[in-house]
Amino acid sequence: MPEPAAPAAPFPLTALVGQSSLREALLLVAVDPSIGGVLVSGPRGTAKSTAARSLAGLLPDCPFVTLPLGASEERLIGALDIDEALRGGGVKFSPGLLARAHRGVLYVDEVNLLADSLVDVVLDVAASGINVVERDGVSHRHAARFMLVGTMNPEEGELRPQLLDRFGLMVALENCFDPQVRQQIVRTRMAFDLDPVAFHERYAQAQAQQRQRILDARAALSTVEIDDDVHDAVSALCIDAQVDGMRADLIMLRAARALAALEASPSLPSSPKLSVARRHVERVADLVLRHRRRAPATVSSATLPPDTDSPAPHAREPDSRPSGSAAPPCGDDACDWGYLPPEATGTTRVKGVVALTSKKR
Description:
10% strand, ATP binding, extended, five-stranded parallel sheet, ChlI/MoxR_AAA_lid, Rossmann fold, 9 strands
């Protein structure tokens, strides 16, 4: 009997064209899974699933586990091993999908269509890193530290705000309308499909360097310092966005810390001190606040360059209308477009008009 074929290697993460925000979010979660996972929202065919599988393919001994929409809670968290109990072997725990995803990637496609009870469990375990099962006389707990990646198409329904807030980061993808980028994406994908082995060899060095960066950043994560200036920046951003609770503050600090460790990983052995800077906070702020923001995004005027080409707010072009013509009723300059002055209408005098008596009226 022939042996089953080995699963094909996923598309290399470093070969993804564009999608820089998605790649950065995945790398941050790979460095620190306690960030709470990544929610990827976007239309069909925007590499959401490909990127999730690529993350697992980048790391060594990283299982990739898919949570199907029809899964039961017992299959997700684990349950009593009935076969073992019937054989008289006593009570034994049968691990579920969360146990299989330990030290790997748990992928939930169309998470907005998954039962809310399952989403609650997944997010709880993703944040704590521990799965606790207490049912049918079984009390069991085990480590379940995984990188959670959920994808959804907003055209098929939204995720409840209570669940949305519990995803650490969110990336919103859009369709690409740049012909050059589209052609590059298609050429890259066709090259991978034509010869996956040669394609992987071409990106082997980039994949190895990215893998080592993640491993170095993980090792250095506990040494990264966060000073008061960074705390001030995080608080100001979260207050400005009017987020609920303190989850956004915590996740923003974790994400900024992971980014600082990731950026410094090539020079970690010679770095005497590693700390988070404001630029790290600014880089991750949109990923953290996108799905939590209750106030419209604002940009500080101090960060905007002066626009010297635009006229002053009260400067107006000379009035080219004929003298004596009335101004349009609207005071806004935009109302002048297409304006025509009123023209006088002639009248005709009528002769021989006799007024009717009151009885004939």
